[in-house]
């Protein structure tokens, strides 16, 4: 059976006995050394923890430079090297602090100096921090094998972004492109949905992205919005019972549901439910459609069990990139009573 080195055994026993005040004597030689402390936050780096300004180190009986207050990161190094410690066992506390010197996360540990020693601190963040957020950048469509275009090459001047149907934030395009990132407001941990709209200098939409991402407590998410070219459509509806055209109130209809089906893939753009609009607000304007050819489906429930639907043989419509028909260009479909 292998034997434990006497120096290692003594250090192990001394660490185990620190809470009782027990001292283990080791008659072998001991050596002073430097203590290299490094820290992470449930694995995250300082540049991912925007609320953390610095880390305070407290070692019982030791006087540290700057009263033990250190920046979270200095010259790309997340940690500090403390010099010329006498040999022996030490206990320490580490406190991650915010810009107002509020304690955010804490850590308690021990180490033994017998020559230079490295100590890794991983602050337990999960669920106890100040929430989280996401860092976002955007890219524009490119041909396979070629580089992503810059904002100027893509003709994009501004970008609007929002999370979970919140308020739109407005950015100059360069703020989140070519390696730069923008930050969301603080988010609760969990699933979120990001939308990005890229616009030209006249604020006409050119590209769009919509997709989910997961936010973890204390660890910022990084989201790249791979936008795609978009176009629009304007479609309206007219309600009929036989050959008689009805108003919304006559038909007992308050809402009309619309959906687009890709004629080649059969995929519905707006899932099973579709998009719903007040009956009196015909036509409806769509701005975030992928270019392509679509069948358009309409449905409208009325009072008294009545129901109105569009015919299945409506001609498909074409959506072209960066083309956005307005009210005057709307295509209208008849909705016949089917029940």
Automatic annotation (TrEMBL):
It comes from the Bacteria. PROSITE patterns: IG_LIKE, PROKAR_LIPOPROTEIN. Residues 22-75 form the Ig-like domain. Residues 1-24 form the signal peptide. Keywords: Signal. InterPro entries: Ig-like_dom. The keyword Signal applies. This is Ig-like domain-containing protein. It comes from Corallococcus sicarius.
């Amino acid at each position: 059976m292998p034997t434990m080195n006497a120096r290692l055994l003594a250090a192990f026993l001394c660490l185990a006995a620190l809470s009782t005040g027990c001292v283990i004597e080791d008659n072998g030689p001991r050596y002073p050394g430097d203590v290299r402390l490094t820290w992470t936050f449930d694995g995250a780096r300082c540049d991912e923890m925007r609320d953390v300004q610095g880390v305070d180190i407290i070692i019982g009986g030791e006087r540290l430079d700057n009263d033990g207050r250190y920046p979270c990161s200095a010259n790309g190094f997340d940690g500090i090297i403390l010099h010329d410690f006498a040999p022996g066992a030490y206990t320490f506390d580490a406190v991650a602090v915010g810009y107002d010197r509020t304690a955010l996360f804490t850590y308690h540990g021990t180490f033994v100096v017998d020559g230079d020693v490295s100590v890794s601190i991983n602050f337990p963040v999960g669920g106890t921090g100040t929430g989280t957020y996401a860092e976002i950048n955007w890219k524009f469509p490119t041909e396979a094998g070629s580089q992503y275009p810059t904002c100027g090459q893509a003709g994009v001047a501004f970008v609007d972004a929002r999370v979970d149907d919140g308020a739109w934030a407005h950015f100059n395009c360069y703020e989140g492109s070519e390696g730069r990132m923008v930050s969301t407001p603080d988010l609760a941990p969990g699933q979120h949905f990001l939308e990005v709209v890229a616009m030209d200098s006249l604020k006409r939409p050119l590209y769009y992205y919509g997709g989910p991402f997961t936010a973890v407590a204390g660890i910022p998410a990084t989201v790249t919005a791979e936008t795609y070219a978009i176009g629009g459509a304007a479609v309206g509806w007219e309600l009929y019972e036989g050959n008689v055209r009805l108003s919304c109130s006559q038909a007992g209809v308050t809402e009309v549901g619309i959906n687009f089906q890709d004629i080649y893939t059969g995929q519905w753009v707006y899932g099973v439910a579709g998009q719903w609009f007040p009956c009196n607000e015909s036509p409806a304007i769509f701005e975030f459609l992928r270019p392509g050819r679509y069948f358009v489906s309409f449905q409208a429930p009325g009072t008294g069990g009545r129901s109105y639907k569009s015919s299945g043989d409506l001609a498909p419509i074409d959506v072209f990139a960066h083309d956005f028909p307005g009210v005057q260009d709307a295509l209208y479909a008849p909705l016949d009573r089917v029940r």
